[in-house]
Amino acid sequence: MTDSSAGTRSRGKRERLAAAAATVLHEQGVEKTTLADIARVAEVPVGNVYYYFKTKNELVEAAIETHTRSLSDLIEALDRLPEPAERLKALIAGWVEQRDTAVRFGCPTGTLATELDKRGDGLDATVADLMRTLIDWAEAQFADMGRTDARESAVALIAAYQGISVLTNTLRDPELMAAEGRRLERWIDSMA
Amino acid sequence: MTDSSAGTRSRGKRERLAAAAATVLHEQGVEKTTLADIARVAEVPVGNVYYYFKTKNELVEAAIETHTRSLSDLIEALDRLPEPAERLKALIAGWVEQRDTAVRFGCPTGTLATELDKRGDGLDATVADLMRTLIDWAEAQFADMGRTDARESAVALIAAYQGISVLTNTLRDPELMAAEGRRLERWIDSMA
Amino acid sequence: MTDSSAGTRSRGKRERLAAAAATVLHEQGVEKTTLADIARVAEVPVGNVYYYFKTKNELVEAAIETHTRSLSDLIEALDRLPEPAERLKALIAGWVEQRDTAVRFGCPTGTLATELDKRGDGLDATVADLMRTLIDWAEAQFADMGRTDARESAVALIAAYQGISVLTNTLRDPELMAAEGRRLERWIDSMA
Amino acid sequence: MTDSSAGTRSRGKRERLAAAAATVLHEQGVEKTTLADIARVAEVPVGNVYYYFKTKNELVEAAIETHTRSLSDLIEALDRLPEPAERLKALIAGWVEQRDTAVRFGCPTGTLATELDKRGDGLDATVADLMRTLIDWAEAQFADMGRTDARESAVALIAAYQGISVLTNTLRDPELMAAEGRRLERWIDSMA
DNA sequence: TATGAATGAGGGTTCATTCAT
DNA sequence: TATGAATGAACCCTCATTCAT
Chain A residue with minimal CA distance to B108? Predict the structure, then answer.
């Protein structure tokens, strides 16, 4: 019991750091975020961070993995819905629900991808995987609906979300996300 | 004569700096770009930059203004086309033409907006104006086409471009932009 | 039984650490070597090192002692030879044999002495003892040969070795050591 | 005059840094010396060091160059002597003169070479050049004296100096250097 | 005895900004 | 106006040493 809680505390710390990284990197951006910021949020002494992550990049990587896991969970939940159209609309509904976060910080994945592209380390490939996972899942839904242009539709859907996230964030207007959500839903409905 | 040529040279320097800033900030990102980088590209001594721009932020602002002027020029050119639908399709065609740049650096305005949002200075409002200008123009075209949902369509169009820019850049695939361009054209055509 | 075997295991660990320290400190230098490096080579967990050595300096001391013991063994072996001139020439032959190590890392004692001198801890005195032991032994051989300048010759011999080690290492040429070895042998022979 | 003094001040600063580096690196060793140490001795603010030297390694390189220049000056002075044997003995006399420095810090070139070998950067090649320059010069003198074994003698001479420097430093005894100096002089004399 | 985890001081380096001329 | 030089705050990272168990 004591041992297990000790193990838990250690693993907990790593996870706390990864979670803090995911949040803070989203909110402040990769470049503006210092290790001290992440350490503070995770309530871990700065020097100790390096016991778990050898470089700042590894911390960014862990943040991406956190997002990847979130996406997996989301997909798993959506897959429980019976109809592909419903699944897609539930995805959209989720986006709309989080529109206030989008207003303040944009899409976590999209802004991260944009920033990592400029950095020159190899991390952009990792976010690309994450992005592809989402597109692939959407494609599967469109295919399930019998669409022959499933890939193109999937790309268009995710692009619409990425784009409206940028606009919602830039123009500080959550209603943009809401309206686009309704438009996308109508689009899905028009396919049935 | 000497003064005027000096003035000319100075204005030339200021513009060279603004242009260099626009390019380099797009390619490297705001945070990764140093004043020295911009000065080097503009072929202006580092110490001299501060004669024209008191802070790095003012240089970023100048870069945005450069983009704003580019947009004005573009709009002016598009407005010479007779039909609103043609104008919109010409806009889209321009996006597709520049897809290789999007692959490497994303949309200049979008990535800048994403980065500036994280910085906390007041510059995000300036990019927002730029973004709004484009949306407003698109809205005018849709209205001209007799659409009652002109604003929503305009937002959707620009969002589509922003989003596909993110995906094109992240996934390093220019074909994404091309395909989305064709899709958007079809959409415009379907409105006629 | 358990205690004794534990004790044995412990002494084994202590010796493994000292041996690892001797090797790694020679190869990487004192400053560039971390405790983790030594622990890894000795296959001892980092945290456990401090049970045997309270500070890094103590580990350096142990490394010196390891070298001292090696020197004792060497001297013991040389002393089995009947003639002092033979003993000295056997010493020289040993140096030449190890010239490839000298090329890569220099003389273990000499480089250690050079490094420890800069550190300001009291360890330089310990290497000095080691160095003196070798000189003393050489002096005894020269005296045994009937030389009245035994001390000076001994110093010259060891200096020649230290110096050619520096050059062999710096210029990365094992042949330097070999040639100097032949020269020194001739010198010894000329005394008989 | 003003301009030239301004230029002098700048160049002076760079040189002051290089000179400080040469001294401090010799006295404290490369690893133990911080940039702040060098900056303090050169009376230059720490942040300003990087205006002249982009990395610590460049500062080390500059220190080596300082030593190289000193050697050139020395050689130039020695070359004014008429006889090669005299030149070599003057070289030796210089070593003996500086025996108190050797006691405290060893030979600047030798200790630097020993330390740089462990560091893994490419600087060891630069010190090697310095060392070779000295050997080459000595070889020329021995050749001038009609020796067929000029190279070997040159290597032996420099090795003797390097080695006695190590011993003088390690055993903290300036008399070692003095005695070895006399021995080497006799050796030179025996060649005439 | 044994060990993973924690800690904090300090080092090298970058860079926006300012200064002196 | 122009410019090389100066400045210092902040950042990432390393590591000897200590702690808790």
Answer: A114
Domain containing residue B183:
81-192
One domain, residues B136 and B188: yes
Question: Residue A59: which nucleotide is closest by CA–C1'?
Answer: F12
C46 touches strand F (CB under 7 A): yes
Name residues whose C-beta falls within 8 Å of residue D163's C-beta, 6 or more positions apart in sequence: C158, C159, C160, C161, C162, C163, C164, C165, C166
User: Could you give the CA distance from residue B19 to residue B42 in angstroms, rounded to a whole number?
Assistant: 8
pLDDT band, very low/low/confident/very high, at C33 (cuts 50, 70, 90): very high
- Tokens representing C78 are 């040389």
Please state the rounded mean pLDDT for residues C164-190.
98
Q: Is residue D76 part of a domain?
A: no
Please tell me whether residue C16 adopts helix, strand or coil conformation: helix
* Statement to judge: residues B127 and B100 lie in one domain: yes
Rounded to a whole number of angstroms, the distance from the CA of C27 to the nearest CA of chain D is 7
Strand F footprint nucleotides (protein C-beta < 7 Å): 1-21
- The total of other beta-carbon atoms located within 10 Å of residue D186's CB is 9
CATH of the domain at D21: 1.10.10.60
Rounded distance between C-alpha atoms, residue A125 and residue D189, angstroms: 72
Shared-domain flag, residues D39 and D121: no
Reported as a single tens digit per residue, the pLDDT across D142-168 is: 999 999 999 999 999 999 999 999 999
CA closest to B159 among chain A residues: A163
C-alpha span between C149 and C154 (Å, rounded): 9
- Regarding chains B and C, contact by 3 or more CB pairs under 8 A is answered as no
The pLDDT confidence band at residue A161, using thresholds 50, 70 and 90, is very high
Contact A106 B114 (CB under 8 A): yes
Say if residue D56 is in the same domain as residue D93.
no
Q: Which nucleotide is nearest to D52 (CA to C1')?
A: F5
Query: What pLDDT, in 10s, does the model give residues A90-145?
Result: 999 999 999 999 999 999 999 999 999 999 888 999 999 999 999 999 999 999 99
Cα–Cα distances (Å) from C158 to A119, C53, C110, in that order, read: 55, 32, 10
Residue-averaged pLDDT of chain A:
94
- Could you report the per-residue pLDDT of C97-108, keeping only the tens digit for each? 999 999 999 999
* C82 strand F contact, CB < 7 Å: no
CATH number at residue C112: 1.10.357.10
- Whether the model clears a pTM of 0.85, i.e. scores above it, the answer is yes
Pair C43, C96 in one domain: no
